Amino acid sequence: MLKSPTSCALALALMAGACTTLEPASVGELKPGTDWVANSPDWASEAEAVFAEATAYIDQIAATRPSGSWGVILDVDETVMTNVTYQIERDRTGTSYSPETWYEWTQREAATLVPGAADFIVHVNAKGGHIGLVTNRRDTEQLATERNLETLGLRRHYEFQVLLTRANTAPSSEKDARFDLVPEILATQGFPDVEIVAYVGDNKGDQPAQAGDWKFFCIDQGGMYGDYCAEVPRSG
Ligand SMILES: [Mg+2]
Question: Ligand 1: distance of its center to the CA of 192 in Å?
Fold first, then answer.
């Protein structure tokens, strides 16, 4: 699969980075990335394969570290929950992402699970790991996001311990400061000295900028949003 420049046309402003050019879709026509996520079995099988790889790594971690001493940080959109329905609606109406339509979408609490994500999160908990979610959804969207996650069986305290959005007015979608906060928040909750051993995301910025003693697992989201970390389906 090749990384197609035209896929950058669907970049979300909330993940603004390398992809800034917006290209209107033809009315009614799904873009290749949207179509791949919505209709190809490869999307689900690729996501499940990545989570299986992450699960195997977690099993190694859990075998050598005390329960409660480690954790995993995941992105939310196109990593835990898919918003392909939102993107289908954009493509069908020939429109692009806007903060207003995105906010309305989040309030519907209608995002669905990325295949493999929930099982992975449950597995991490069962093995004694903590789960932190760090998302570029806005703080104004946090309540709806948590309700959406809960509908999908992912509840604060039970399946995840921390969920960090970004301020509505934040000038940057950079996540490093919030990554650093996750162990600190866990410490205040009674879990000191937690080491983050893995990150899971669909964008390059879903891992720390500086290399460290952790692994990154990349979910292929078809090149729909942002500075995606996976190659995307060939468009032609
Ligand atoms: Mg994402």
Answer: 28
